[in-house]
Amino acid sequence: MSRFQALDLGLVVAAHGRHAVVETPEGRRVQCHPRGKKSELVVGDRVRWAPSGDEGVVEHLEPRRSLLYRQDDWRTKSFAANLDQLLVLVASSPVFSESQLARALVAAADAGVPAVIGLNKTDLPDSDGARARLAPYRAMGVEVVELAAKGRAAETRERLAALLDGRITLLLGPSGAGKSTLVNLLVPGAQAQTGEISQALNSGRHTTTATRWYWLDADRRGALIDSPGFQEFGLRHIAPERLASLMPDLAATLGACRFHNCTHRHEPGCGVRTAVESGAVAASRYRLYVELYDELARPRW
């Protein structure tokens, strides 16, 4: 038996810098610090910890079954670990970035985390345009759930109940998509919990930049992890030659390429480009692929 097995098991429900809030199996929350100078803890981690005065020390990180993160040329940002699914929230207004959406879905596919798209504010008159932009995603098998967290709150809560029940779900989306409204709808008392976590982390003004864990039921079966809005979503941890296999609509055509190392950008006999020309793959999705491929193939400095 590992020497860590004798230590208490805990769940990281918030983390900021070298501070973490660890929840015990009984529901007690303890402010902890990692052993050593560097902290790699993220919300959703399972850890072994030991009491140290009024606080605790994290001695061991249990193996993760998944980790969703983004990486640009300078830094890596982890969102959460041990997820059952990702809910990417976009809105009818303001107009969402399809590049950001595609990047989040690619990162989820790379991490082995199933993803669902939530289209919020569908009670607004300009919703049809957003639905049309999401049509290629529905066609390639991504579930799109229509929501109206403000205008049709009861219906939205009911629609998400089955999707979230018993699952650990990371809520991800850009600023303005309505994430805070949705969290407050699904988690009564979420603002109070946020204040308590902020105080425990000594984060103060960083409250809005910290990822937070919320239980969705008294039995603590399902949870929602709220992550701060993002403007950029780097995928530099993904090799360009793997990109097409992480985009379901393109992946479905890969066996039709003449060359096994086809980049799907200029080679003759390319099954992906043939699918684009026939309309089987949306031109907008292919443009995103080329944009991402060029970015991932760019030399690192």
Counting copies of identical and different chains, the oligomeric state is: single chain
Structural class: alpha/beta
By CATH's scheme, which homologous superfamily of the largest domain applies?
Answer: P-loop containing nucleotide triphosphate hydrolases
**What CATH architecture of the largest domain do you see?**
3-Layer(aba) Sandwich
CATH class of the largest domain: Alpha Beta
> How many domains in all?
3
What's the CATH topology label of the largest domain?
A: Rossmann fold
Spell out the helices and strands N to C.
Answer: EEEEEEEEHEHEHEHHEEHHH
Strand content: 15-25%
| Rg, nearest Å | 21 Å
In spatial order, strands of the major sheet run 10-9-8-11-13-12
Report on the biggest sheet.
6 strands, mixed
Unreliable parts: 204-208
Instruction: State the separation between the terminal residues, measured CA to CA.
Output: 44 Å
Residue share in helix: 25-40%
Q: How many β-strand stretches?
A: 13
Integer average pLDDT = 90
